[in-house]
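## Example record

The block below lists the input lines for one assembly entry, exactly as stored, with component labels intact.
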Amino acid sequence: MLDAPSNRPALPPEIARRRTFAIISHPDAGKTTLTEKFLLFGGAIQMAGQVRAKGEARRTRSDYMQMEKDRGISVSASAMSFDFKNFRFNLVDTPGHSDFSEDTYRTLTAVDAAIMVIDGAKGVESQTRKLFEVCRLRDLPILTFCNKMDRESRDVFEIIDEIQENLAIDVTPASWPIGMGRDFVGAYDMLNDRLELMDRADRNKVADSIQISGLDDPKLAEHVPAGLLEQLKEEVEMARELLPALDKQAVLEGHMTPIWFGSAINSFGVKELMEGIGNYAPEPQPARAEPRQIAPEEQKVAGFVFKVQANMDPKHRDRVAFVRLASGHFERGMKLTHVRSKKAMTVSAPVLFLASDRELAEEAWAGDIIGIPNHGQLRIGDTLTEGETLKVTGIPSFAPELLQSVRAGDPMKAKHLEKALYQFAEEGAAKVFKPSIGSGYIVGVVGALQFEVLGARIESEYGLPVRFEPSQFTSARWVHGPKDAVETFAAKNTQHIATDNDGDTVYLTRMQWDIDRVERDYPEVTLSATKEMM
Ligand code: GDP
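Predicted structure tokens for the full assembly:
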């Protein structure tokens, strides 16, 4: 069990000012636009448009990225740091497509909160719901941004009801929109009693804030047309009667989400949301670990790898391990213990993912994300400490739902293929199984699109054309149990047995019946659909 937030000691100021979060949304809701405005107001970029432009420059580098662009999906996750007021924000990007849900799940282990972006005309969409469920599994606090209020959108009460019913979470309005579509003028900031007006002339300009004292303040009439003002007063009164008031504790426990209404493209509502993240999203939280949890205020540095990205720069065969610092104050050049191998590792060239570019990190604190270039020593789920044997838990690997055999287009290149497959497996992009009988490999993924990405990447990053072929198997289960029992079981079922990329035994299944049969015939053996990353 983690400590309840109220029992936790005060954090050192450098740590307490950090907010590490991800954005979850359905494609097209406005995640990229919102990210760009965050960076703009965080001073990380000078002009809106740069994130997209940079993204495109990067994407043209390979076919795989081209594919990402064509499909309008973001396959690779990255991290961005920027300052806002007294806060240091760390935004970790999540792939939006459901075929990459395992990646998303692991990314969400590295954040303390999520921003849910919904389109005001569309409400809660399928992908929003799926990602929300993942956040719920981790009890992550969620702040909501209802975007595109400059367009015809749904009735505000209807949107709020839909979130409450669909996602079973209390919703409290942090702001209330005034008008919508062409008549949208801005919002009433319910938390700070301010009127926020949208500037339609300049999309990158922040709206004016006008301090008022309640909705009867005569100042309102100077800015809001009479009809809309009447409507605003009525709606806010109703909202205060019908909807719960903001309860920070309930937000931190993930039972309540405050909602802001805005228009990312017009920079409207973004600053209020950023203030909200500062005020209502949690400080860096303790990390679950064995044999004890790791608290951010601990003096000693500890961190864990939640993502590995290979070949970020195709010219250098390096990999970057994305590490969430769980505790302490990290300084460049520090010697850390890689707990799995018990080896010391000098972290001499860590990178911070500042929006402008990869930059060398001189220091970082609990809550930050740093990138550690390495040659394959660091794997997803690995823990780094200053010597203590601690293992961060809760970073699972899921059984694949689709399996295919893979072959090199050129049979002479089979060894190269093996290397590429293992590399992608370590990155978490796929599972690789070596059947105990025969040659060749079986690749397992969660979503079909992953096969395409994998094929394109093996070709572009290793120069190896590959073919995927249907496999008789549909899923895999990790085999556990007493050593003897597992060995007997494996010997009698060789045609179903394989080893995964960590060398663990798996049972390849064709249908549920296979699993039922094993459970019936081998009571000492258990088959599991998830495995903790080592
Ligand atoms: P993502 O797929 O969630 O990253 O969405 P994008 O940020 O790429 O936005 C999808 C589309 O919606 C783009 O054409 C944006 O220009 C547009 N868009 C984003 N925010 C707004 C908004 O506040 N109002 C309107 N009208 N369009 C928006």
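Residues 25, 27-33, 147-148, 150-151, 263-266 surround guanosine-5'-diphosphate (CB under 6 Å). Residues 226-242 form the longest helix (17 residues).
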